Amino acid sequence: MRAENFLNLLYPRCCPLCHEILREQKRLLCPECEKKIRPVSGARCMKCGRQVDKEAEYCRDCGKRNRNFTQGKGIFPYDDMWKLSIEKYKYYGCREYGKFYAEAMLLFGKKNIIRWKPDRLIPVPLHRKKERRRGFNQSAYIAEQLSLLTGIPCDGEIVKKCRNTKSQKKLNAQERRNNLKNAFIIRKNVKDLTLLIIDDVYTTGSTMDEISACLMAGGAKKVYFLTPVSYTHL
């Protein structure tokens, strides 16, 4: 018996959306939830990919200030179902959900990845204290799975988080930006590289902006981002 099959007997995989045990353990999502998932549709912000009115080119946030990233996209709209899924993935040991997120990002973001042509996948780093407490870096795991699917190298050593910041959850947009100021450093040469940042959720874009600023200052050619989930409204 293969090790993976044996582990599935001991710890059966669950659907990442309804959290019920998958009857078919080779599946990443149950058939019922597969019918329910819908990516963000309609007009999208030309910068961050957030849903906008038909006439608008940019969302409220991107229209008000310059972004340090070139472009980005979140696949699914953040709602109660996705909130619970992400929480279970990050905090309750459901690491296998990361494989589904990566598959979904490739399925619904393939055209973007092909158009962007990234040289490296860059996971959003955690401070070492937080990663030790959580047990893993959720963004790195998604990036590693996406790397296996696409063949694009994933490098979690390029960007390091050098300051242990407060949680972003309860901060407004300005507080988020201030909280992340000088929190990241570049550890490797990125000159002339096109880079794709991977995270679990896109909220205000503060994290993407701060990391992108570091990468562009280090000589990166272009910086994009991709996430499985994005806030549609703030």
Structure write-up:
With 234 residues, the protein is an alpha/beta fold. Helix content is 39%, strand content 14%. It contains nine helices and seven strands; from the N terminus they run αααβααβααβαβββαβ. Strands 1, 2, 5, 6 and 7 form a five-stranded parallel sheet that branches. A two-stranded antiparallel ribbon has the order 3-4. The termini are far apart.
Q: Can you summarize this structure?
A:
The protein has 234 residues and is an alpha/beta fold. The chain has helices at residues 3-10, 31-36, 60-64, 80-91, 97-116, 128-134, 138-150, 173-180, 206-217, and strands spanning 71-77, 120-123, 159-161, 184-186, 194-198, 201-202, 222-230.
H/E series: HHHEHHEHHEHEEEHE
Give a quick account of the main beta sheet: strands, pairing sense, barrel closure. 5 strands, parallel
State the separation between the terminal residues, measured CA to CA: 49 Å
Average pLDDT level: 90
Helix/strand/pairing class, anyone?
alpha/beta
* Low-confidence segments: 1-10
How many beta-strand runs?
7
General form = globular
Helix content: 25-40%
Number of helices: 9
Radius of gyration: 18 Å
The percent range for strand residues is 5-15%
